[in-house]
Design brief:
With 175 residues, the chain is mainly α. The chain has helices at 12-31, 47-60, 68-73, 102-133, 137-159, 161-164, 167-174; strands at residues 76-78, 92-94. The protein is built from 7 helices and 2 strands.
Length: 175
């Protein structure tokens, strides 16, 4: 396979997408044993994958290894653009998985949904800091309530992990 050309990538989103796809390709090459459990993992990665992956990783200031950003943050899609809550976990789909299983997809989507819902809490932290700096107890109180609500939402989403991700399957079959 020829070395993939990255020179046409221009936007951050294109580099992120390329990083995700190349990461899946690299890890599939290294760990994909064609179903033979006795076949060892590959100790090398061909230049056709490694060179563009390193180039893209350097641009994104990342190491060329599968990371949360690649499998979660840059690897989801909205299923219904008209949904009331676009970032509701039931309205999200995974673009790529290694196994094609719901268990793997759901594991990634739980993380994605937590981060999406948690963003409100991060903004509230900044508001709380501003409130403290300006001696504004009303703003601090409101911000702390927002932080608590955000954490509660994140916990509720995390509690849904077992709905579609069997720990046994994830640990022994996917990981």
């Amino acid at each position: 396979m020829p070395v993939l050309d990255t020179s046409k990538l221009t936007t951050e989103a294109e580099y992120q997408r390329a990083f995700t796809i190349l990461g899946f390709m690299a890890h599939a090459f290294v760990w994909g044993r064609n179903g033979a459990v006795s076949e060892p993992a590959s100790e090398f990665l061909p230049a056709s994958i490694s060179i563009p992956w390193v180039t893209v990783a350097d641009y994104l200031q990342l190491n060329p290894v599968i990371c949360c950003a690649a499998v979660c943050n840059w690897n989801w899609q909205i299923l219904d653009e008209n949904a009331e809550d676009l970032m509701n976990i039931d309205n999200l789909g995974t673009i790529h998985t290694f196994s094609g299983s719901m268990d793997e997809s759901w594991f990634y989507l739980i993380t994605t949904a937590i981060e999406a819902k948690g963003a409100r809490g991060l903004n509230a932290i900044l508001s709380a800091i501003s409130g403290v700096e300006n001696n504004n107890t009303e703003l601090v109180t409101h911000a702390l309530n927002e932080i608590a609500q955000s954490l509660n939402e994140a916990n509720h989403i995390l509690e849904r992990m077992y709905e579609r991700c069997d720990p046994y399957v994830f640990y022994w079959k996917i990981r």
